[in-house]
Design brief:
By secondary structure, the protein is of the alpha+beta class. It folds into four domains: 218 residues, Metalloenzyme, LuxS/M16 peptidase-like (Cytochrome Bc1 Complex, Chain A, domain 1, 2-Layer Sandwich), CATH 3.30.830; 176 residues, Metalloenzyme, LuxS/M16 peptidase-like (Cytochrome Bc1 Complex, Chain A, domain 1, 2-Layer Sandwich), CATH 3.30.830; 203 residues, Cytochrome Bc1 Complex, Chain A, domain 1 (2-Layer Sandwich); 203 residues, Metalloenzyme, LuxS/M16 peptidase-like (Cytochrome Bc1 Complex, Chain A, domain 1), CATH 3.30.830. The strands form four sheets. It has a six-stranded mixed beta sheet, with helices on both faces. It has a six-stranded mixed beta sheet with strand order 12-13-17-14-16-15, sandwiched between helices. Strands 20-21-19-22-18-23 form a six-stranded mixed beta sheet, sandwiched between helices. A hairpin with a 5-residue loop joins β12 and β13. α17 crosses α22 and α25 runs antiparallel to α26. The longest helix is centred in the first third of the chain and has 20 residues. The radius of gyration is 27 Å and the shape is globular. The two termini are 45 Å apart.
């Protein structure tokens, strides 16, 4: 992807009562069949072969424009793995009529966004913009299809960015090598799916400009493209614009290359041994060859996948994580691309447990499915989860566009986005057992074992790959250059803006003091319920960092009448998602469910919020999972630096510790500590319940009364303390030997949410680092290729918030990146932002806010935060005007007072031997702390000798 790479599905796997009526204590084993409205769309094909799909939605003020090309990583030239992905980056550069970075100016800078992704079989480009920008975006997409400028400067810059992406996602992540590199390499023998989509640095370095130009000429053509438009538009105008801008593009006469390789069946089990330098816990994955997306067995394999690992009531979680407690993570994945794909099960082992244990346990669960079909309850639960997931995907216009494009590229028929739901519902228990027997065979498996580099046998090393060829393509076609300014075709004019229809929240306070806010925001059958409690890490007892976060996390792990497994199975049987967690100053329980299941799901939500059991055995499970998670996080430079930020920024205050706990504090937590926090702070008068989506205020208030009206009001909890840090700026290098990148961070205290400078502060931070076009990303990524992305953020709180600017880069570039961050912070204070820049960055804020309002979860989060900080709910209607009112002097003044780099602390986490000396020269007070000696419970951050 432009901002990610292939293997995104696998990466996502890690990214990892008295009130309840007796009739609801056990949910029905098989919930009623959920319905998802089909995506209504029209399609046609232009004379040049380009397919066009349109889907009208008058409820949104926005539109998504997407172009899907039938070329992916499997089509990389031999010796140029990662090329389709590299080329995807090039598509954001110049065209004959557009200077480089114009696409960002015409999307992000007007309140929209753009992105792209490269998969095995396709590459897609997508934008979401205000609807009056539709014609302009169609013109842009036609421009880069027909007249892309490929020059040496942009080519080399983007190649450097992709190399940083490779380091960030594969070399700096403990399990990046396993899931991104080793898994496909071990699974496939002949098919190009065996090559990682990100490629490798040697082949990226070998790429030439002829390679890039030939690739565009070969694949980026109208007969290999599908245009998808979803949102608010005039159909006649849209068709005319499509004909005007895309119809003139010629269909080349030359054929496109085809992948003809056929993957042979595996006839005996295999083993692949992999190693990584920063692997805190061993891992094991097992793969089998499976089928393509259009295969009749695809639906059954998808349901099998959901039964194995769909949620906390799934078989792998129950067996490996919950009952045996041998794994920190357990997962499966039905990877069903255009050609036959693979099925995977995997586990990251818990501390003290071996790969052999994980392998045996995974195979035992697979054997169970081969030997006996799933129960009716398991089958119904898996289907409801899958259908609800499809519904959540379609909550946004870009999600609907993606569903159409994905179905088209992998099955050849966009309508499969609608019929796949019926296919899933038709799967029987016998089907699941049949495909388990057919594909997940003992002789057909490949076991991938992944350990720390220190465990590699003496003398063993990975085979040296062959040197990439110097030349794979000679290009003799047209070469486009940016036309002189006076000779460029201008973009089309903008249409009249479409005014958004904003939700109107209503509120009521129950007799027990619970504030209830309801806002109908959609006709799509989804509701979000969010309960916010005014307590967080500030309430942690001294020496017990993570107590409040563990209290919140434990809410879903058992109540007085429901076990943790019952909560998971009952919730997931309803197709609902239920989660809880805590932050610095608030904790929450969040539910997302279809409206017809809301009464049952809300009763479970109320039970977990009001009646948690905090059972000792459940606490021990959660503690061990948290400790294992910290072992992984301590090997990731970005996470490690982030965890060190709170003790540095808020030293000496109730925020001045790691909010999720530390390896020393978590073992000290007792059941009584959690119960005391809950009894003291989880009171109805200290909480806000927000209901959004397909629900009326009358329905919401009635359901809130039914579920939460019996919540007894206790003593008023203590108020949150004033957070007034007086930190001395520090410079800290956390040494993580062997990691693939350094995370560079500049951090300091900032402002409260209610500060009069909130809006100037948000605009200032967005100018600095809020988005792809912001100053930090311009200087660090776009101009110099030093990072996959650089950003800045302002996190506001009740009395004092924080600021953080960050970027990850190769270790030796850390001092240079720090200089660039500091220089941009200083420049923001030294000179006023231009009118054009301010207008663009304000649009980023306004557009992002509007898109968040468009989803039930986003709206619930916004309203919950307004209530948390005592702000009027009508701020959702005044937000845009307040952002637009910010002037350049206010931005400059805020930067001068709040964002002074001389008053900030520096935290760099990475392989210190590559940057320690030059960093020490810039920062004489630099403290170098080996990661093994890091102590986040200590104000010094260093373990006592």
């Amino acid at each position: 992807m432009r901002r990610t790479a292939r293997a995104c599905a696998l990466a996502a796997l890690l990214a990892s009562s008295a009130l309840a009526p007796a009739a609801l204590a056990q949910a029905p084993a098989a919930a009623a069949r959920a319905e998802v409205p089909p995506i209504a769309f029209k399609q046609r094909t232009l004379p040049n072969g380009m397919k066009v799909f349109t889907s009208l939605d008058r409820a949104t003020p926005n539109v998504t424009v997407q172009v899907w090309y039938g070329v992916g990583s499997k089509d990389d030239p031999q010796g140029r793995s990662g090329f389709a992905h590299l080329f995807e980056h090039m598509m954001f550069k110049a065209t004959k009529n557009l200077p480089a970075e114009s696409i960002d100016r015409m999307t992000e800078d007007v309140g929209g966004f753009n992105n792209a992704s490269t998969w095995d079989d396709f590459t897609n480009y997508y934008e979401v913009v205000p609807a009056n920008h539709l014609e302009r975006l169609l013109w842009v997409e036609a421009e880069r299809m027909g007249s892309l400028v490929v020059d040496e400067a942009n080519f080399k810059s983007e190649r450097d960015v992709v190399k940083e992406e490779f380091r960030q996602n594969y070399l700096a992540q403990p399990y990046g090598r396993l899931f991104g590199l080793y898994l496909p390499q071990a699974t496939y023998q002949a098919h190009p799916y065996k090559r990682p989509g990100i490629g490798n640095i040697e082949e990226l370095d070998a790429a030439t400009i002829d390679d890039v130009r030939a690739f565009h000429q070969t694949w980026y053509r109208p007969d290999n493209a599908a245009l998808i438009v979803v949102g608010n538009f005039d159909e006649a105008k849209l068709n005319a614009w499509v004909d005007r801008y895309f119809g003139a593009l010629e269909r080349p006469a030359r054929p496109m290359p085809q992948v003809t390789a056929k993957e042979p069946p595996r006839t005996q089990p295999g083993v692949f041994e992999g190693y990584g330098p920063n692997v805190p816990l061993p891992a094991v994955a097992i793969t089998w060859k499976s089928v393509e997306a259009a295969h009749p067995d695809a639906a059954a394999l998808t349901v099998l996948d959901a039964i194995l690992s769909g949620g906390k009531s799934s078989r792998l979680y129950n067996s490996l994580v919950y009952e045996k407690q041998i794994a920190a993570e357990a997962m499966s994945n039905a990877d069903l691309p255009k050609d036959p794909g693979m099925f995977m099960v995997a586990a990251i082992m818990a501390s003290g447990h071996t790969i052999q244990e994980g392998e045996a346990a995974l195979l035992a669960e697979v054997k169970r499915l081969r030997d006996q079909p799933p129960t009716a309850a398991e089958l119904a639960e898996a289907k409801n989860e899958l259908v609800a997931g499809k519904l959540r995907e379609r909550e946004t216009i870009d999600g609907r566009g993606f569903a159409l494009g994905y179905a088209l590229q992998l099955t050849g028929d966009a309508a499969r986005a609608n019929t796949e739901l019926a296919d899933l519902q038709a799967v029987t228990a016998a089907d699941v057992q049949r495909v388990a027997r057919k594909y997940l065979t003992d002789n057909g498996r490949m076991v991938v074992r992944y350990r720390a580099e220190s465990e590699r046998p003496a003398g063993s090393k990975d085979p040296t790959p062959p040197a990439p060829p110097k030349t794979v393509a000679k290009y003799d076609g047209p070469v486009f250059t940016l036309a002189p300014e006076g000779q460029r075709a201008p973009p089309p004019p903008l249409a009249e803006p479409v005014q958004p229809v904003l939700p109107k929240p209503a509120e009521r306070t129950l007799a027990n003091g619970l504030r209830v806010i309801v806002a109908r925001s959609s006709d799509l059958p989804l509701v979000t319920a969010d309960l916010t409690v005014r307590t967080g890490a500030w309430a942690d007892p001294q020496g017990l960092a993570g107590a409040a976060a563990m209290t919140a996390g434990m809410l879903t792990e058992g109540t007085r009448t429901r076990s943790a497994q019952q909560i998971a199975s009952q919730t997931e049987a309803l197709g609902a998602s239920l989660a809880s967690g805590g932050g610095l100053e608030s904790s929450s329980v969040t539910l997302n469910v279809m409206p017809d299941k809301l009464p049952e799901a809300l009763a479970i939500m109320a039970d977990v919020a009001v009646n948690p059991a905090f059972a000792d055995e459940e606490l021990e499970r959660q503690r061990q999972q948290a400790l294992d998670g910290l072992q992984v996080a301590y090997q990731q430079p970005g996470q490690l630096a982030g965890m060190a930020a709170a003790p540095v920024v808020f030293a000496g205050t109730a925020f001045g510790h790691a909010p999720n706990g530390t390896p020393d504090s978590l073992p000290k937590l007792k059941r009584t500590d959690l119960a005391a926090i809950h009894a003291r702070h989880y009171q109805p008068q200290n909480s806000v319940l927000v209901l959004t989506g397909d629900i009326t205020p009358e329905q919401g208030f009635a359901l809130a009364e039914r579920a939460f009206g019996g919540w007894a009001r206790g003593a008023n909890p203590p108020p949150a303390p004033e957070i007034r840090p007086q930190p001395q700026p520090r410079a800290i290098a956390i040494d993580l030997p062997g990691t693939g990148q350094a995370s560079v961070n500049v951090v300091k205290p900032a402002i409260a949410r209610t500060d009069p400078d909130y809006y100037p502060g948000m605009v200032a931070t967005t100018v600095l680092g809020g988005g792809y076009s912001a100053r930090l990303n311009q200087e660090i990524r776009i101009k110099r290729g030093l990072s996959y992305g650089a950003r800045a953020g302002l996190s506001t709180a009740r009395t004092t918030g924080s600021f953080r600017a960050s970027a990850q880069t190769k270790n030796e570039s850390a001092p240079q990146v720090l200089d660039l961050i500091n220089a941009e912070m200083a420049r923001l204070a030294a000179e006023p932002a231009s009118a054009d820049e301010l207008k663009a960055r304000k649009s980023v804020l306004v557009g992002s806010f509007g898109r968040e309002l468009a989803t039930s979860g986003g709206l619930a989060d916004i309203l919950g935060n307004l209530a948390l900080y005592g702000l009027p709910l009508d701020e959702i209607t005044t937000y845009t005007a307040k952002v637009e009112a910010v002037q350049a002097p206010q931005v400059q003044d805020f930067a001068r007072r709040v964002l002074d780099p001389a008053q900030a602390s520096v935290i760099v986490a990475g392989d210190a031997k590559a940057f320690q000396a030059p960093l020490k020269a810039k920062l004489p007070n630099l403290e170098v702390i080996p990661a093994a000696q890091l102590d986040l419970d200590s104000r010094t951050l260093r373990k006592a000798p």
